[in-house]
Amino acid sequence: MSITESFRQRTTPQLQLGNRFRSLPRSAKWSLSALLIAAFYLTPYWPQVPVLGWIVNTPGTSFENVLTDQIMMFILVALGLNVVVGFAGLLDLGYVGFYAVGAYTTAVVTSGQFTLPWIAALPLSVIMAMIAGVILGTPTLRLRGDYLAIVTLGFGEIIRITANNSDWLGGPRGISKVPHPPSIGPLKFGVLNAKPYWYLGFTVILIVIFVLTRLEKSRVGRAWAAVREDEDAAELMGVDTFKFKLWAFAIGAAIGGLAGSLYASKVGFINPDNFQLQLSILFLAAVVLGGTGSMYGVIMGGFLVAWIPERFRGFSTRRYFVFGVVLVLVMVFRPQGIIPRRGAAAGIAQKGESDV
Amino acid sequence: MIYRTFWDLTVSGVVLGLIYALVALGYTMVYGVLRLINFAHSEIFMVGTFGVLISLTKVFGISLFDDGQYPYRSGFTLVAILVASTIAAMVVSGAGAVVLERTAYRPLRGAGDAYGAVVLAFLTGLVASFLFSDHMMTNLAISAIITGPVSVLYVRIFRRGRQAPRLAFLISAIGSSMAMAEAVATWGPDQRSVYKTPRVLEKKVLFNFLGADVRIDYVIVAIGAILMMTSLLLFVNRTRLGRGIRAVAQDAETARILGVNVNSVILVTFLLGGAMAGGAAMMFTLVYDQTRFNIGFLLGVKSFTAAVLGGIGNIKGALLGGIVLGLAENYGSSIFGGQWKDVIAFVVLLTVLMFRPTGILGESLGKARV
Amino acid sequence: MSEVLLSVDQVTMQFGGVTALDNVSLHINKGEIFGLIGPNGAGKTTCFNVITGVYAPTSGTVTFDNKSLLGLKRFQITKRGIARTFQNIRLFPDMSAVENVMVGVDAHSKTSVVGAILGIPRSRREETESRERAHELLKFIGIEEYAEVAARNLPYGHQRRLEIARALGTNPQLLCLDEPAAGFNPAEKQELNELILNIRDQGYTVLLIEHDMNVVMKISDRIAVLDFGRKIAEGLPQEIRDNPDVIAAYLGVPDDAA
After folding, report:
1. What does the mean pLDDT of chain A come to?
2. pTM of the model
3. Which residues of A touch C169 (CB under 8 A)?
4. Pseudo-torsion of CA B178, B181, B184, B190, nearest 10°?
């Protein structure tokens, strides 16, 4: 791939790593990837590994619960929000809305009087979230960047408040007794053992990564990048900017709904307080912290945002103060994120809007 | 009966709207000059309310109740207390805004300086000290020691001076907001509970307007807000520094070339916005007699909505947007029920933006019409 | 008999109180190089913007290939066959040169989002073809070795050419160049002249805004002159050169002759 060579022109350490990976012969790449994937499937066992375990383990709570209650969801959400914010450059401050739609759809549909099996509830949740994305995007994507931010923020709040005020959605008390997924082969999704949830969740993450990589390297990814870098010029080069922005919204929403659905099935009960505005903000922080537009960056970001407060539970009530300060420090000293996307390595700002 | 309620709602809606408007000014001015949504402005407001609290309870020594009665004051004492507390709030909020700008935003513009470096170094030290100890004294000691050398390091890094992408500013704002709110929540005496503020003003009904009782605190808020906004408008339109603000809002590069000290302008913008928020903080405590570590959040979101509603960057727009929002919330709550109150703001915003994408009075990013 | 490709009919463009274009009419024939000149502020870029759909004219019509362009979205106009470059370069800064051109080529891609996800054969094929075409175009304008370099890192002259390549990627019938020679030295301008003539010889029609008379006079087949939003002259280069109104517009009229 000749793109590889362009990477070689930039020499930050992460990209050197990426370069070296890409320049490996095919068989080596496959073996290394397989090894890494296997290692990540075994993440619930990491606390038992000598040095790694001490670094990673969360005192006070079971690591595998943190992994499957929060980290897994944050990674998925970060991937989905990254499509909207990172790929297409649309500022979405209400992503929690899609997460909520997915969670509530699954909850309502699997625990009410007429129920669907989980295997149908999951795709239904994704579709509902996608529809929400299209409904939100259609009137609002014509608005300029920062206006979109406040409108999406409103959307997230509208979803939460509607859930709070609607009895059929459980009102303030929410929906409890959401059933866990049925057994898939030897994997039993019970209450005690969280590992099967991780195997399921990580598989989902892998599929999402696969789909997004396909998209990123296609004309769709290029169109998104063009819209992000200079929307007016993109439109004049034949890019149907509205259509692609809407698709970014829809795909991002779908992934958010997927994460929400898994959340509901794992945790078993949901209520409007789970979907507050602060969560949207944490989601965005995960993406920016990890590296807007970079898939592996945002995975790292999602992991960190979910993991740090748990790892440093020792800080007790000061956790979120520390988190806030850390956010500021990272932005001051490394605004491009931990694993920046290609082209943003130097942390240089994007071109603004101007008259043609 | 309904007629009476309508004017009641209108009067209290306008008062609420004026508070929104004052806070919205901070958002709108900073956005006009920096194109930044200052997420932490809500906490600037919040610390202002605590400024009022401290002024009332510590400086004037007023307690919540005097023998089971409200500690009403009157005449000259009352005026002195109110004025002093307003000034306290404005100073606290203004100072907070200035520190915020220097610490969380200026470095991202590539213009980081020593003051920001010191604050960041102190915070780094503080956070690092948490790894080792829980005692506040130890934490502060460690931070004090670390601040020196680390700030030197930070200043050196700041010299590289690169402009960060816009999203980084937003996340820095979010982090600052979180840090400020959590600092108050963690180290304030009552932590996360509601702090009641002493009610020094007896909320007499001054007169009756078409069936609605107009209390004295409403009148004070209205007069105060109008005074503050008029002063701000005069400042921005008539003074040299105000001209600088408008110039930078239009085209920072050109302004810089023409000799405008852009960094000063930005600082003054934050200071003014903070002062306005401080005024709003005083009014808020006057009307609601309480505060909390997180009151900034929802009010901030709504105030920003008001700013966008009226036309972002437009000072008169902030006033209009605030009032429209206050009224809409009151009317909407009575029609749809109080539980939908917070949604109304966004529904109104969405509707307006559909038909006037740049807000009611239109954007005014630096145009002479402010 | 030449065929009219683009026809601008009595187009007026008003912004608030300012009339940027006043009843302007002109037509461009297929296969020609048409120059649009005039002093600064005459309305040349506004005219471009009306043609490419950035502005909707206050009155008047624009007809391309016998079909009206009114009401079409900008990307639709590009798909119909009009492409442009910009006065101040607007490349996609963090994308490589070849990616920039590929965005242009993608204008006619039929791959959908779903198709891309599934990786259907057509999607893969179009991807390869798009990349090949982009490389061809880069070679044509002479910067193929820079294919993988980020656009922001290219030297100025290469950036200007890249913009042209990107516009050509959309497979236009009419290529609009907005001051392509800005900032070039005489040697570079000569190269640019040859490039534009080359482009015309490949079958494209070119609409050119340019200040440098050497460039415009040398390569244009016909020229129109705008001043204060009005067309004050149109014709062959020699006619324009000797036209007193044109000279007056550029140089001003001496006091005693006023």
Report:
1. 84
2. 0.86
3. 237
4. -120
